[in-house]
Amino acid sequence: MKASSALWKQSLAGQIAEPLATELDIYENEILLKKQGKIDDKVFAETRLRRGSYGQRYDNGQRHDGVAARKLEFPQALTKGPGTEWDAPGMQRIKIPYGGMNARQLEVMAELAEEYSDGIAHVTTRQDFQLHFIHIEDAPSLMRRLGAVGITTREACGNSVRNVTACHLSGICRTQTFDVTPYAHALTYFLLGHPDCQDFGRKFKIAFSGCAGESCGLAKLHDIGAVAATREVDGKIQRGFQFYVAGGLGTVPQQARLFAEFLPEEELLPVSQSICRVFARLGEKKNRNTARLKFLVSKLGLEEFKRLVYEDRKTLTPDPRWTAYLSELDKLDEQPLKPPSLLQIEPTRPKDFDAWYKSNVYQQRQGGYSTVTVALPLGDITSDQLRVLADITRQYCKDTVRTTVDQNMVLRWISSGDLPAVYRDLAAAGLAEAGAGTIVDVVSCPGTDTCKLGISSSRGLSGELRERLAEKQFVMDEAIRRLHIKVSGCFNSCGQHHVADLGFYGVSRNKGGYTVPHFQVVLGGQFENNAGSYGLAIGAVPSKRIPETVDRITGRYLAERQGEESFQAWIKRIGKAASKAMIEDLTAVPAHDVDPSYYVDWADAREYTIGDIGIGECAGEVVNPIDFQLAACERQAFEAQLALESGDVARAQGLAYDSMLHGAVALLKQRLPVFTEEPDQVVNLFREQLVDTQLFHDPFAGAKFAHYFIKAHEKRAGAVSADRAHQLIEEAQLFIEASHACYARMRQQPAVAKA
């Protein structure tokens, strides 16, 4: 039974740092004022987001494993009336800097998941934890209990510096330059609540990597990415960072740009502070669609941005925190619980141990010690399992636990001779699944389970893929086994689909008056080299045919690869046209009366629908001309990819723009009998007929995708570059997806008189 907030406040008095205790008192009062209607909705939204409290989706479906735990119905007795859902149960995000945790923190997480949520904690791709179905009035108690064990939710969401991530192997990695843990820790707490970081237009993400070649840190997809580097100065080795800025995924991804080949360690905090100050001062505030750092750097140019940052750096008042931590870098050094030992060959070794050892055990740079990855299907772990992990850490490895960007957890500093015993303990708790870091280890965002932005069931699909792949993982060719699959429920890339070998993001299509769940297939991404390259979508496939798509693509790769050719190299060699042709037949959707299963998403018994797109009457197989027109737009966008691939950048930009222009024309023809298809006129009519009327407004993105077209029109005579072409292609694909959705909305409205 949950204790009252007042009781928790009293019992935890003195265990929480005074600034945090005062802040939580203020938050509790703000909640009371909101309940009394004395705080504006928008103001309170940012207030709770800055403390990690999100709204979430409710659709009463099923989880990927058939259990209804993720979709429980909760009473909404506190709501004030229709449309006021601010105090309905939501999601609480909990920051875990660089993923580091101890046994007591694991136990508290277990208690909170059990008492306030559905008994499940979820590890995210930013090494956070998330608890779902949290009532807002319980949030202060939950936060106090976290604060008592050194965990905060402050700035886990909102327009703030989000959780600072880092390699989960940092400190024990065999290829690291040095341990980045103390640097990630220092920057986390330097920027947390810093006055220079409170006026952003959007979120800000930071990551650290201990080496350039691996993928653990994914530094190149962040606003700030710091990769450990050294140089020799006057005969001494100096530490610093290969320093990147302005990366990001989202609807139109952009790789981070190299800000400094070598940023000395003593400049890490002040330069980061100045970057935040320039972003706060010059970053977009009104249009959230262009309010990330990547848009500011694109607008200013990298050299001008660097000039502004270094100019600001000169004006900063010296802060002792900039370098104080450098004198105690070993403060966060981990110590083993037991002496090193070697794994012994045992005739009684546990069943399946060898397969688990192959994929889930990493030999540390420190001889005689191993790191164990606890693979969490879709990032979920139960309260009981968290308690088992806490016990294991106390018994075998002295609190050295970390979450990972792959939604798993690792136990570090296991004496290698203890591995069979650790395996037995994990297996008894259902935590010894093999396949960590392989194609089986599918990464997924929450999707339609709980996210309001979800279009297709990413968790449902990911669970299905994981189950199918796990059945054949031990007979799978190693070239296939080492691939990565990442799934997002929409275009926002929370599942990081752009940097997967096989990436998928949710979209929808219309067939005979019914909506059909689909996923765009993204190929060409690179997980290694800290997210070395981003993939592009090659076509939308019905959700129910994605497993077949995975088999088709991986089978072709295995049959056609030359020597040790990587998946990315193979995709590049065969080209976009062949890649698209490979799945072309899989894009077909049978009529609803032929096979209704296509109209139901994974792990859901209901007929698929999304937002305000309803199920219309099926009028046979008569096809509206707009279906052909939008298909032609998709073709043009794909041809733009082919042009970019062949090096014809100007043609790629032109085709991407044309695909949007023709999409706008197709939609306008549904509203107007005759109009001049001259581009300026099309843009004006598009604004008047579709943007101003909000017909083109996406339920979640507003007019964002409309402005991609308008901006492309305004800049169509601008500079030609591969980066610009890549961005235009991404924007064109999203504009066309929005055009499909707009057409579906138009079908639900009364016909417009055509004079």
Question: Could you outline the blueprint of secondary structure elements for this entry?
Answer:
Blueprint: H1 5-11, H2 18-35, H3 41-49, E1 53-54, E2 90-94, E3 100-101, H4 103-116, E4 120-123, E5 129-134, H5 139-147, E6 165-166, H6 181-191, E7 206-209, E8 224-233, E9 236-245, E10 257-264, H7 268-282, H8 293-300, H9 302-315, H10 321-324, H11 353-360, E11 361-363, E12 369-374, E13 380-382, H12 383-397, E14 401-403, E15 409-415, H13 419-428, E16 443-444, H14 458-471, H15 478-481, E17 485-488, E18 502-511, E19 514-523, H16 528-531, E20 536-542, H17 546-560, H18 567-583, H19 625-646, H20 649-668, H21 679-691, H22 704-714, H23 722-747
Parallel strand pairs: 6-7, 7-8, 16-17, 17-18
Antiparallel strand pairs: 1-2, 2-5, 3-14, 4-5, 4-13, 8-9, 9-10, 11-12, 12-15, 14-15, 18-19, 19-20
Helix pairs in contact: 1-5, 2-3, 2-5, 4-12, 6-7, 7-9, 8-9, 17-18, 19-20, 19-23, 20-21, 20-23, 21-22, 22-23
